Amino acid sequence: MPSGQILLADDDAAIRTVLNQALSRAGYEVRSTSNAATLWRWVAQGEGDLVITDVMMPDENAFDLLPRIKKMRPDLPIIVMSAQNTFMTAIKASERGAYEYLPKPFDLKELVAVVGRALSRPRNVSTGANPSPENEDIPLVGRSHAMQEIYRALARLMPTDLTVMITGESGTGKELVAKALHDYGKRRQGPFVAVNMAAIPRELIESELFGHEKGAFTGATARNTGRFEQAEGGTLFLDEIGDMPMEAQTRLLRVLQQGEYTTVGGRVPIKTNVRIVAATNKDLRVLIQQGLFREDLYFRLNVVPLRLPPLRERVEDIPDLARHFFMLVEKEGLARKQLDVEAMDRLKRYRWPGNVRELENLVRRLAALYPQDTITGVIIDAELDSQPLLPPQPAGKGSQSTQQGSEGLSDAVERHLNEYFSGFRDTLPPPGLYHRVLREIEGPLIGAALAATRGNQIRAAELLGVNRNTLRKKVRDLELMVVRSNRG
């Protein structure tokens, strides 16, 4: 049976009662209070084996109290609760020395489990807290459960140098997460260097990463500093790591294993001290099966995996995100706007193929183009529905369809895309077009393969030349209906 005295501080009497009952049933002695002054008096008197406290107390903010507690009793574990549920709340809890941060509402079983782990840990373990600049410019926005898990993971990673692999669709904010890891981590005083593998010609990637010596190849008229050298003492963010060519993968693996590299054309090994954060919107396990990505490099990079959810999986964050983006554009000089209930409902029902980036672009467009102070659902419908990927054919064009029935797939796609672009006249479509086009083609292709194999996903995966798990994920993401047949 577990034992120990818990000091509980929360201004809400109902919450104190529920937590008291749950912890008492688990075998702990609980002393509870509604203010920080009493909590501090108990701690100063040497009472308690663990503290559970809300952030917002009537007489003092717990974040101001935590440093005093840690200074007087550094081995006393502290669990912080908060209903604010922001990225900065999680980060501040970690920085002030909290053992764990729990966003309200939380599962009581989880709380009891956290208490058990905290009381069973060695008492001389340091939390690794770092003082940080008091910066309230929140880089990540959202209070959904999915984002709370991201915040908690980031808070645990801040005091470490562990390699992190961030996965997620295009536009989900992978670079923002990498930048937050740097800006609030132990390497914040060093440089943050971002490299997009997909934007560098394959033959120049090694030179870009590791630098080159004068005369190393045709056109190398002077020594070039690589990104590893530029990021020394800081963080190197390798975006779109799945697009890295195999030769560069081999050199990167050697750097991760040995902690040193040589420039292109150089002979002297150079020691490196950087934290690696990688990101991709691809399934690297599929690339490994296809022979396009090294499995040993994958395991070196995937020390701590972080998956960023697409916006359609966190629609409850859309109001906060929209307000955040409207505030940003207002600071840039555009008029203040707000969304009515119908407009917000329309945003929540949209699939957001371009994710958070697409929402930000929409907000900027709304702020710039519409004079109304309040954006209505009609305006949102006009904005979203005026940008279909493949415009519907006007009525009465059946003869044209018949005439075009013999054209090839490539010609048909090109024709439709030309019509799509012409619909924007002098402007451009919203960003993320590449993935939207692929998504539009993927659905009918996978649907046709499943229909041809009568819903047999093993045969359909073989027909398409993809991994079975990849096909299952595509079917789920594209929300395809699989109809299985016993015939054949």
From TrEMBL:
GO terms for molecular function: ATP binding; phosphorelay response regulator activity; sequence-specific DNA binding. Coiled coil: none annotated. Residues 398-407 have a biased composition (Polar residues). The modification 4-aspartylphosphate is found at D54. It comes from the Bacteria. Keywords: Activator, ATP-binding, Cytoplasm, DNA-binding, Nitrogen fixation, Nucleotide-binding, Phosphoprotein, Repressor, Transcription, Transcription regulation, Two-component regulatory system. Residues 140-368 form the Sigma-54 factor interaction domain. Residues 5-119 form the Response regulatory domain. One of its GO terms (biological process) is regulation of DNA-templated transcription. InterPro entries: AAA+_ATPase, AAA_lid_NorR, CheY-like_superfamily, Homeodomain-like_sf, HTH_Fis, P-loop_NTPase, Sig_transdc_resp-reg_receiver, Sigma_54_int. Its main location: cytoplasm. One of its GO terms (cellular component) is cytoplasm. SMART domains: AAA (SM00382), REC (SM00448). It is found in: Cytoplasm. Signal peptide: none annotated. Residues 389-410 are annotated as: Disordered. Pfam families: AAA_lid_14 (PF25601), HTH_8 (PF02954), Response_reg (PF00072), Sigma54_activat (PF00158). NCBIfam families: ntrC. Member of the two-component regulatory system NtrB/NtrC, which controls expression of the nitrogen-regulated (ntr) genes in response to nitrogen limitation. Phosphorylated NtrC binds directly to DNA and stimulates the formation of open promoter-sigma54-RNA polymerase complexes. This is DNA-binding transcriptional regulator NtrC.
